[in-house]
TrEMBL record:
InterPro entries: Pyridox_Oxase-rel, Split_barrel_FMN-bd
Stretches the record annotates as Disordered: 1-21
Alphabetized Pfam families for the sequence: Pyridox_ox_2
Protein's name according to its UniProt entry: Flavin-nucleotide-binding protein
Organism placement in taxonomy: Bacteria, Bacillati, Actinomycetota, Actinomycetes, Mycobacteriales
Organism of provenance: Mycobacterium asiaticum
Low complexity: bias regions: 1-16
Signal peptide positions (record): none
C-alpha cells in the first residue's frame, strides 16, 4: 500500500500560534528527524510529567528510542502502551532584532504524538539498535562489535509509529516593527550549524588501527 505524501493534521499536531510555519509533508519531517542527533521524550510517570533527552533513529514510518531496560519509560511501556510526546529540534540561526520582543531563532522542529510500545521481537530490536548506531555515524554499525545477549537484555527499545506528526519551521530574517527600523541597533541573523571536527583516537587505540573511511 502506498504511503500518503503528507501526515494528516490533528488537534494535537496543529499549532495554536504561527500555523503558517507548520509542515506535514513526510520529506520535511523525515529530514529533520534524520538530521537531529538528540530528541526529547515526554511521558507521565506516577502523575508527574517527565522529559528525557535521548537518541533516536527512524526506520520508515517508525521512530525508535533506546534506554536501560530498568529505566522509567521502559518499565512504564512494558505493561501497556505508553502515551508519549517526542520532539526533535535543529537550531539554524539567532535572529537579533532591534526590539527585544522580536528576537527569535531560526529553527526546524518535529513533534511526534503517539503510543510507545516496547520492542519484544529480537530481530526488530537488533535492526533498531543498528539504526541507532547508523544515525550517529553512517557505516558504523558494521564496524563495531554487535551487542551480546547480556547487553541486549540490559537494553530496551521503544517504538512509536509516525501517525500524529507535525514539523514547524522558522526561516528568514528579522521581523521588526516599521517604527523601529530607524533605531540605531544592529539587526540580522547569526547562522548556527553543527559541524564534526577531526576524529580523535582513544588513548589506548593501537596506532596501527586505520581511520575508517566514514570518518575521513
Amino acid at each position: 500500500m502506498a504511503v500518503a505524501a503528507d501526515y494528516r493534521p490533528t488537534p494535537r499536531t496543529t499549532p495554536t500560534r504561527y500555523r503558517d510555519r507548520a509542515r506535514y509533508d513526510r520529506d520535511t519531517v523525515h529530514r529533520i528527524l534524520d538530521e537531529a542527533l538528540i530528541c526529547h521524550l515526554g511521558y507521565v510517570n506516577d502523575g508527574r510529567p517527565v522529559v528525557l533527552p535521548t537518541t533516536h533513529a527512524r526506520l520508515g514510518e517508525v521512530l525508535y528510542l533506546h534506554g536501560s531496560s530498568g529505566s522509567g519509560p521502559m518499565l512504564a511501556a512494558r505493561w501497556s502502551g505508553m502515551p508519549v510526546c517526542i520532539t526533535a529540534t535543529l537550531v539554524d540561526g539567532l535572529v537579533l532584532a532591534r526590539s527585544a520582543m522580536h528576537h527569535s531563532l531560526n529553527y526546524r522542529s518535529v513533534v511526534v504524538v503517539g503510543t510507545a510500545r516496547l520492542v519484544d521481537d529480537l530481530d526488530e530490536k537488533r535492526r533498531a539498535l543498528d539504526a541507532l548506531i547508523e544515525h550517529i555515524r553512517p557505516g558504523r554499525a558494521a564496524d563495531c562489535r554487535p551487542p551480546n545477549a547480556r547487553e541486549l537484555a540490559a537494553t530496551a527499545v521503544l517504538a512509536v509509529d509516525l501517525l500524529e506528526v507535525s514539523a514547524k519551521l522558522r526561516l528568514g530574517g528579522v521581523s521588526d516593527d516599521e517604527e523601529d527600523l530607524s533605531l540605531p541597533y544592529w539587526a540580522g541573523v547569526v547562522p548556527i550549524s553543527v559541524a564534526a571536527g577531526a576524529a580523535q583516537p582513544a588513548d589506548d587505540l593501537d596506532p596501527a588501527t586505520p581511520l575508517p573511511s566514514y570518518l575521513r
